[in-house]
């Protein structure tokens, strides 16, 4: 929830810079970023008293009160903020997080439903509503995350939540697919580092745990998922001596070549197209070492990086200069 609010804070401050007195905005921004929430609340409260219909001020003040943990006062602002003609999804996120902080799950549930009726393509709202449901052990959470992936494929949070969910089920496909998408969308975060470790575990403990790769797969798996498993199954003999970063590089190289020949036209998919690009540019080994090497065997990865310094530097420079986003229309779950 903290990370979500940092994103919301940046968005609200940007909005406020356009919607209110720049001096008030700059003062509030300085206080919020320095952690002086008391003064941020003071400045924003006085400004809102002078301009009570200012939507940017309403959002900024509500967030400042959240950070201050003065949830009761924040509740006084929420109705006018949500009824404002300029209301956007982030306002519902702010309100939802306040209800969650107060453990008012029923109010939060009602709020998210209303928000998604109004903004059915908002990935962050699906993500946070799913988190609310998951905290209550309501397995409808995965339906919200899947809806978010379909409606707003460029938003990373739903891939993260869905990958974690599928990792703890018998499904062998979607933890790998969604997890790798997330890692590429949010490559430098702590969550991405943890997800890289989960991906390695999923290859070892889920995908190749049985000689029959199709064993125990849920009934009704999508055609895409079956194609993924069939193509990976052709490479399974490569793991007979174990799974590590080098073996996964071989497995995934053969997989992407097979997928390109047999399935790419039927199932165009940005993640696999990206892997093809890396193969063409001679960066796929470095990518796989980055993805799995540090979690598999850090000394071995360090040795590989030293022995392939030019290749690894080329990959890291490439990675820094790109933005990975899934496009609409590639939902196959």
CATH architecture descriptor of the largest domain: Alpha Horseshoe
CATH topology of the largest domain: Serine Threonine Protein Phosphatase 5, Tetratricopeptide repeat
> What characterizes the major β-sheet?
none
Total domain modules: 2
CATH homologous superfamily assignment of the largest domain? Tetratricopeptide repeat domain
Task: Summarize the helix and strand pattern as letters.
Answer: HHHHHHHHHHHHHHHHHH
Which structural class should the secondary elements be placed in? mainly alpha
Instruction: Output mean pLDDT.
Output: 92
Radius of gyration: 23 Å
Report low-confidence residues grouped into runs of 5 or more. 13-20
- Count of DSSP H/I helices: 18
Distance between the termini: 27 Å
CATH class of the largest domain: Mainly Alpha
Percentage of helical residues?
over 70%
β content, as a range? under 5%
Which outline best applies? elongated
Count of distinct strands:
0
Protein name: Tetratricopeptide repeat protein
Signal peptide: 1-19
Organism: Flaviaesturariibacter amylovorans
Pfam family, one: TPR_16
Structure, explained:
With 333 residues, the chain is mostly helical. The chain contains 18 helices and no strands. Helix 3 (37-50) runs antiparallel to helix 4 (55-68) and helix 6 packs antiparallel against helix 7 (105-118). The chain is elongated, with a radius of gyration of 23 Å. Residues 13-20 have low confidence and may be disordered. Residues 1-19 form the signal peptide. Keywords: Signal, TPR repeat. This is Tetratricopeptide repeat protein.
């Amino acid at each position: 929830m903290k990370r979500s609010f940092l994103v919301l804070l940046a968005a609200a401050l940007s909005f406020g810079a356009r919607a209110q007195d720049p001096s008030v905005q700059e003062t509030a921004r300085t206080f919020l970023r320095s952690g002086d929430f008391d003064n941020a609340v003071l400045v924003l409260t006085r400004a809102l008293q002078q301009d009570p219909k200012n939507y940017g001020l309403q959002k900024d003040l509500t967030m400042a009160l959240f950070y201050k943990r003065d949830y009761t006062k924040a509740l006084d602002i929420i109705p006018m903020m949500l009824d404002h003609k300029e209301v956007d999804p982030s306002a519902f996120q702010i309100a939802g997080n306040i209800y969650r902080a107060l453990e008012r799950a029923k109010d939060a549930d009602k709020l998210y439903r209303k928000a998604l009726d109004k903004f059915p393509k908002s990935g962050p709202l699906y993500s946070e509503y799913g988190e609310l449901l998951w905290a209550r052990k309501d397995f409808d959470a995965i339906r919200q995350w899947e809806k978010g992936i379909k409606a707003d494929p460029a938003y990373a949070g739903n891939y993260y939540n869905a990958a974690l969910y599928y990792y703890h089920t018998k499904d062998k496909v979607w933890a790998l697919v969604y997890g790798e998408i997330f890692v590429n969308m949010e490559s430098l975060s702590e969550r991405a580092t943890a997800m890289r470790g989960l991906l390695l575990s999923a290859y070892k403990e889920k995908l190749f745990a049985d000689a029959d790769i199709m064993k125990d797969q849920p009934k009704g798996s999508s055609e895409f998922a079956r194609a993924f498993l069939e193509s990976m199954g052709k490479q399974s003999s490569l793991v007979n001596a174990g799974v590590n970063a080098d073996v996964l590089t071989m497995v995934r190289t053969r997989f992407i070549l097979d997928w390109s020949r047999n399935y790419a036209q039927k199932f165009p998919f940005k993640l696999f197209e990206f892997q093809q690009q890396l193969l063409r540019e001679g960066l796929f080994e470095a990518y796989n070492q980055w993805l799995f090497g540090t979690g598999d065997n850090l000394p071995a990865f360090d040795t590989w990086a030293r022995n392939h310094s030019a290749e690894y530097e080329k990959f890291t420079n490439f990675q820094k200069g790109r933005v990975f986003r899934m496009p609409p229309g590639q939902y196959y779950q």
